[in-house]
Amino acid sequence: MEKKRKLLTIGQFAALHGINKKTLMWYDEIGLFCPSFIHPENGYRYYSYYQSAILETILLMRELDVPIDEIQAFMKNRSAASMEQLLQEKIEDLDRHMAHLKAVRKTLSYHHQNMQTLLTMDLSKISIVQKKEHSLVTVDINQDTTFDKQVEMITAETKKYQLRRLHDALYGTMIAVDSLKSGNFGDYSKLFIEIPFPIKKDGLHLQPAGDYVRAFYKDVAESPVLCYQKIFDYAEEHGLVLSGFSYEVIINENVIDKIEDTLVQIEIPVKTK
Predict the structure, then answer these.
(1) Could you give the C-alpha distances from 92 to 72, 86, 95, 163, in angstroms and in order?
(2) The dihedral of CA 162, 166, 167, 173: what is its sign?
(3) Burial 194-232 (b: 16+ CB within 10 A, else e)
(4) Longest Cα separation, the chain
(5) CA 36, CA 10: separation in Å to the nearest integer?
(6) Would you place residue 193 in the very low, low, confident or very high pLDDT band (cuts 50, 70, 90)?
(7) Over the stretch 19-76, which tens digit does the pLDDT of each residue have?
């Protein structure tokens, strides 16, 4: 084809690939990608259409953040085998990066939802919400488990599931509905972490999908006992049966300075009698 025989000026070749002329000049200076022809009188650089595929390979690797020295080494010894290996490594890197971004987005969405709740909802009212099924990582605790021990266990689970930091996941406490019905309102049995990406491992706690009764209380200013009593009254009035566990999470800890302003959200699975 005529276009494959024609030489292109540096400006034309740069425009063809959506880059700056200075980039091509730099690639030439470091010996990474050289012109097909340099005019002996004026020093103008010219490129062949045949060189497009080579340049696109370099630009792809640059987009994947491959260091220049690694690109130079690759281009000197490129082959189908080395290209396949490089692409496989970069695909795996991208998959990990996309999984991380999805996890970050889920965390941001959770905090955004909490802020909307704080700004728009009547937090004194009890409501019914629908929830999807979630798999939770849990650690067992009891009334004798010290705060330091709880922190130690949560930190260990955070590292186990390769979270960069604790707040990359939703976490909270669980108390069995049977304990609540028996009046043991401080009988928390588990700490939980909701990992913000799909996981399949044995030993996870399955938080069921379905309807949940939701209520809020201030951790210090109000008694959780009074809040749970309101939930019991609400369930009785509306013909609902509480089951499983109560899941408690703090929804405003990233916008408060004083512990007395802590707002706790309670969610408990319910079914109609």
Answers:
(1) 22, 10, 5, 18
(2) positive
(3) bbbeeeeeeeebebeeeebbbbbbbbeeeebeebbeebe
(4) 95
(5) 10
(6) confident
(7) 999 999 999 999 999 999 999 999 999 999 889 999 999 999 998 888 999 999 999 8
